[in-house]
Design a protein that fits this description.
Structural class: mainly alpha
Helix content: over 70%
Number of strands: 0
């Protein structure tokens, strides 16, 4: 049985990598279809005691990827169904998960809760994902989780927790990813939190730095996101001319949903 498992395992691993590749390439429907073959193999492996634990870990890895693909396609009900089956299988097995699989599962649960409007639940799952990422020494994933937590709290109007989470994410980015666009993306989250706290000087400085950096790097989408945030901040301060100037800097690279009317 062990020899049979090892003969199957490379094929299963290759399937998982192919599913991840398809998802990362923006081909979620193809990834979902490919996953069906992987799930069939996993059903066989899960039925045997010697391969049950590794099969459960693969179920989490592939199942989490499939949940993400359904969410990419805005198929919330399908994502919920996949996640529910995965959680049911895990509960029935009684098997513990290692930190990498716990992190994947927590992110899947958080994203499903997010799209379902259960933001407090999403924040709790993102916190668990952050803890697992920290245990694994994955600073970038820790920062991403805290950025997501900040967004959850901001959507709920909880400005202080949102600002604390955004600050934690931003400082994590500065420590491990200085010089990357992720630092400025997180700075935009922190700028909004500072604006909502009424700390307008801090918000303006963060937004202005982000606009300049995104302009230098050619990240047009994010430059427009930062400009819209900066314009909103100036408008809240009653500086409508400054806000209007930003709204008239449209160019062909801007997404159509973010351009200002002439």
């Amino acid at each position: 049985l062990l020899r049979a498992h090892h003969r199957r395992k490379p094929g299963l691993r290759a399937l998982r990598h192919h599913i991840d590749l398809l998802g990362n390439r923006g081909q979620p429907a193809e990834a979902i279809q490919r996953a069906q073959h992987a799930f069939a193999l996993l059903d066989t492996l899960s039925a045997r005691s010697d391969t049950q634990a590794p099969a459960m870990a693969e179920h989490v890895r592939i199942g989490s990827a499939v949940v993400a693909c359904h969410l990419h396609l805005m198929q919330r009900d399908e994502a919920v169904a996949v996640l529910d089956r995965l959680l049911g299988r895990l509960a029935a097995s009684g098997l513990p998960l290692a930190a990498p699989e716990q992190q994947l599962l927590a992110n899947a649960q958080a994203n499903v809760a997010w799209i379902s409007g259960r933001l407090r639940e999403a924040a709790a799952h993102f916190e668990h994902a952050a803890a697992q990422a920290e245990a694994l020494g994955q600073g970038a994933n820790v920062a991403t989780s805290w950025n997501n937590i900040a967004t959850c709290w901001a959507r709920l109007g909880l400005n202080e927790p949102a600002a604390d989470a955004a600050e934690r994410s931003w400082r994590g980015r500065l420590t491990g990813e200085r010089g990357t666009g992720l630092v400025q993306q997180t700075a935009v989250t922190l700028a909004r939190a500072r604006r909502d706290q009424g700390r307008f000087a801090d918000a303006l400085a963060l937004y202005e730095d982000a606009v300049a950096e995104f302009g230098r790097s050619g990240a047009h989408l994010w430059r427009h996101v930062a400009e819209m945030g900066l314009a909103t901040t100036w408008a809240r301060l009653g500086q409508f001319a400054r806000a209007q100037a930003l709204l008239h800097t449209d160019d062909e690279a801007a997404p159509c949903t973010m351009t200002a009317s002439p």
